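In this section we walk through a basic example: taking a raw amino acid sequence and producing a predicted 3D structure, encoded as discrete structure tokens. The instruction is simple. Fold the sequence below.
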Amino acid sequence: MPTATASPDSAEARRRLADTLTAEGMLTEGSPWYEAFATVPREIFVPRFTLSGPDGRRAVEPGDADYLDAVYTDTTLTIRHDDAGTPISSSSQPSVMARMLEAFAVPADARILEIGTGTGYNTALLCHLLGAVQVTTIDVDPELTATARLRLADIGHHPTVVTGDGTQGHLAGAPYDGILATCGVDRLPIAWTRQVRPGGTIVTNIGNGVVRLTVDQDGTAEGRFLPDDAMFMRARPAPDHTAPAAGQFTGLIMKETGTRREMGIPVPADEVIHTLAHEVWMLQHDVLSMSFETDPATLVHGLVHPSSGSWARITPQAGDRVTVEHGGARDLWTERLDLAVQWAAAHRPRPGVYTLTIGSCGTHTLRRTGTSPVYWTF
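The resulting token sequence is shown next.
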């Protein structure tokens, strides 16, 4: 692979991005991460990528008139899709990266494990501040780790780069002072809490938010979610893993027959299906949702739980009524409706009002604080 070089105009663009992240409150004034964003050339790690827009997906590469502007825009740059067309690796949105790095807040001499090497850009930011000798990074995809290792070396960083299942951590380098995951997980892997020192920090995306956890002496961990919604690409168990996608189940939703009923609902059906309720994203993390028109006048919503075969078809009727037909072991619609209605009654709180506790054996307790506190253990 040829040695990558930064564009002559890159330095100004990097500084502009760092200034923007500071002005918008993603980086605190005087943050040590400011110089990392202003120094590390993002384009080294994403020489080619795709952007999604209203006209679909388009490829961007050096030589395109808007290439450098796109690299230093606050957006996700996707570099790989799976066989179903689902994005599986990217350079994350810089504002989200900045919020996570600020929340990580480990000591300057901390030994840390990054889960999800991806392009290597976030790894480079960590190396810039902490020193490469302190950083171990792991990714399940050998092509990604090989490429990231070379690109990191191109700019003088030589962290420990491991190919493996990041949900298992990296026991050989433990214990760590902190784990930062740049991929999403549905449940926090127990291996992570067991590989972090007491008092150490874990920052990861779970549900539709980012949580900062502190590990205790007894192997439990507890913390609060950051204020804003955020969702990363999910951790993959193998390089060739293709996750189920909602589009695969359109036929099931359209044709299957089951238990049928009509009911009134206090919130619109599309808000229930596509809710931002954090408890739904946590408790129904493996339920796929979809909406489509069967004809120009009929909108249909669907829910599917692939592993159990449970499904629900929801067709809005006049007023606040819907027709629901469902099958399988779980009544997905009732589960989601109950959670979404509770969330709406609590004035649609954002992730920042939730806390998460991880038990020493891996139990999860999600709490919603505020005027109507409630908790779920799963």
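Looking at the output, two observations stand out. The mean pLDDT is 94. The chain has eleven helices and 19 strands. In the next section we compare this with other chains.
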